[in-house]
Design a protein that fits this description.
Blueprint (H helix, E strand, L loop, with lengths): L28 H10 L7 H6 L4 E8 L5 E10 L1
Antiparallel strand pairs: 1-2
Amino acid sequence: ALRLVVDNMDDNNPDDIAYAFSHSGYAPLSVRLIHHAIKGQWPLMEDVMKNLPGPHQEVIQMVDEQGMPVERPEPHTTA
């Protein structure tokens, strides 16, 4: 689901972040995770994150009354 390697890339009309990485058709895992988070697809990544080694924690960044970032960890952490 993360499409780390994209086989059929159109050099004339690139529509995937993998194009930016030396035109190799490869997008690093970190880039794909950020891509899904930005597109609002983070809940779909829950199963993917469970398969990665090590613990992970979801953090939602909020802003205070002055517009300054405030981080609030979600109640679930997996090991």
